[in-house]
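Hi there,

I know you've been waiting on this one. I reran it after we fixed the sequence typo, so this is the corrected version. Both the input and the resulting structure follow.
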Amino acid sequence: MKKIALFAAFLSLSCVIAGARDYKLSSPDGRTQVTVSAEQDLRWQVSRDGQTVILPSEMSVVLGDGTVLGAAPKVRSATITTVAKVFKTPVYHKSEILDEYNLLTLKMKGDYSVEFRAYDSGVAYRFVTARKGDMTVKDEKVTFRFDKDYDTFIPYVNDNRGGERYCYSFESYYTEVPMSKMVDDSLSIVPYIVSLDGGKKVAVMEAGAEDYPGMFLKLNTADRRSLVSEFAPYPLEYGVRGRYTVPVKRADYIARTVGTRTFPWRVLAITDRDIDFLENDLAQCLAPECRIDDVSWIKPGKTSWEWWSGKHITGVDFKVGTNTETYKYFVDFSADNGMEYVLIDAGWSAGSLMQLRQGFDLREIVDYADSKGVGVVLWCHASSAEKEAAEAFPYYAKLGVKGFKVDFFDADDQRMNNVMYKLAALAAENHLILDLHGMKAFGIQRPYPNVLNFEGVKGLENCQWTAVKDGVPVDDIPRYDVTAPYARMLIGPMDYTPGAMDNAIARGYHANPSSPMSMGPRVHQMAMYPIFDAPYQMLADSPSKYMREQECTDFIAKVPTVFDRTVGVDGEVGKYIVVAREKDGVWYVGAMTDWTARDIEIDFSFLDSGSYKADVFADGVNADRAAEDYKHTTMNVKAGDKVKVHLAPGGGWAAILTK
């Protein structure tokens, strides 16, 4: 890979002109323009190639003392800085990132500034305060005004925990409607994709949230073509509602924080081709820098897992369950297939993280796994982690445990985000990796790269319970599978937990939690490994089924979980996707489609010079009738070759290319 030298060029330009109220900023390639106006209020507008992305859109921060940052703004100075630098990414789908942008800084009367960055791949702004002592933030007003009623991909908040408005798992299917049809007062999580004219798309998102709540979006009902922000107020009291402990009283503010700080970035990722979202690095570039001096101990990798398959194991002479014998069996499976981890899900502890289930010998499992070169990761509830991590993390790290999967955060208000930062720091001190569930990626993965994965995705678990109506599933999971990589993955990795070896066409699917199946042909599942970002990646099915389908398992086991290069090859949001990733000179390619069969052409121009041998898994000729049908072949390809591929309904294509 050609190395890019680290450099930073700084160019300061005076933008202060007597009476001037507009300030302009361009992306490095000159195609994207940001215009900031400072008159009665502070607004920004964005265009690309002369085409409107957003109309002038207001921004402000309302403080507890009545001050409104952004109201009647008085600009003291304005400077433009050009920055280009490279930073390493120890746990990512690229080994390094070029962070190149132009920066406009407006220093305002009132001890605050507003920073605007223009990248070739998008734009962002954030408030910066320099106030003495602490401050209370009553609200932040973020607006995105569009010039037309564009089509959108809306990830609504639903299935609220205990009926609480802001408590949610951050797992959403995408509702595809014009913006005006968004349900009034309903919240959406981010990213939220808007389809502009001419094939361009913009993803509304945030980045770098710390000591602050996450941003929700809702429709501006005044014009029905704008989005406005909403933030969870700070929780003051908790109570039990149904199965969940949720806030029952919230404050009249969203954050209490230090007076000198940076606020989260409000971001528009802009693309000409849908597939370019797969190479967008804004979530990394806009996150805080790494806070771990030595990251050499952080080990990404794949894991076996017992929960999704219901421990559906055959051909053994012990009773399967939450017991020592079962997990040693999973350790053997991980070791035999070159996998780095085994995950022990819920049930190993009894009431407290410091008390094991009766008869469960965790030390024996950990020692056995260590002898096989396999690391043990433990599941725990977020509430238990918050209460007991100070004792449990160092104790289990000393025992030899390698990490924790922390589940059911189900909120991203300021308090919960601070909990996650504290857990990440404590885990790092004890050389523990984390997999956070009930939470979307929000930028913590750069300062704490020991946070290897996040849920916040409608993953394979949904195939355990999705209902069937009129002979077909009510949820279109294959369509979601070719939407989430463009949207959800913009903000970070996702723990989809792929790898089902029992597969079904739409009319063959039924929910079966004890021995679940996936929707779509076999290779759709296999293609997820090169396509989905997941530095800590599951093999969700049963070892018995993987051994039954060993050549598919061998392929999956060879796919790394972090890469040196990523290329978005082809695709369209909600329809199909083709992605190529390279690690140590080997290329891994995946393609998937929704329930529509497709004939596509894969352009191998991304390859380096020379001939490659491709180990290929493709949908079988009868995959539209028998979802387990696939064809395993080899072929030779070189840079510039174009290979025609047929994808069955809900199908896939996957290949490993070696010289």
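Quick highlight: The longest helix spans residues 382-399.

Best,
R. S.
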